[in-house]
Amino acid sequence: MVLNAIRAVYVTSNVIIVSVYLYVQKQINKKRDLTTLKYVEPAPMGSADEPKLVTTTIHAYDLSQLRSLFKTQLVGVGMMGVMHLYFQYTNPLLIQSLIPLKGAFENNLVKIHVFGQAAAGDLKRPFKASGGIMGGLQGEVKGDKKSVDAAERAGTGGAKEE
After folding, report:
1. Which of 49-53, 72-76, 87-91 has the lowest mean pLDDT?
2. Reading across the β-sheet that carries 36-41, which strands appear in turn?
3. Alpha carbon of 38 to those of 22, 43, 61: distances in Å?
4. Looking at residues 80-100, what average pLDDT do you find?
5. CB–CB of 118/22 below 8 Å?
6. How distant is the alpha carbon of residue 100 from its chain centre?
7. Residues sharing a CB contact under 8 Å with residue 120, sequence separation 6 or more, in sequence order
8. pLDDT at 48 over 90
9. So what's the pLDDT on residue 147?
10. Is the overall model pTM greater than 0.85, yes or no?
C-alpha cells in the first residue's frame, strides 16, 4: 500500500516535470526570438581540439537546452526503472520524486519562460554550466565579446546552427 503510494508520487512528479517542459517548449515557440547569439563552446574533455565558435539564435539555443533537459529526465526515469523493477530498490523512489522536481523549477529556462524573469545576470544566455559532477570538468561556455572575437579571428567554427 505504501509502496504503491510512493510509486504514484514518483509518476506524478515525472508527469509534472514533463508538463512544465512542454509548457516551456510552447512558450519558446510562441516567442520565437530570432536574436543572434554567439558563444564559444569549450572543446570536449580530453580532446586536443580548439574551443568552437557557435552562432545560433536564442530560439534554437533554448530548444537545444530544453532537448537536453528532456534527455536528462528520460535517463533518470530509465535508471530508476532499472533500479526499482530489476534490482527491487524502493528507497530511491521518494528522493527521485522530489529532487528532479525541485531541479526542474530551478532551471534557467523555467525561470525565464514560466516565471517571467528577465534573461539578465545569471539567466543571460549562454547559461553557465551547472555545478554537477562533470560540470566543472567540461569547461565554461563563454559568451563575452572578447572570447567570441578571438574565436572568430582564429577561424574555429562559426557555422550557423538552425
Report:
1. 49-53
2. 36-41, 52-57, 157-160
3. 26, 16, 10
4. 91
5. no
6. 12
7. none
8. no
9. 65
10. no
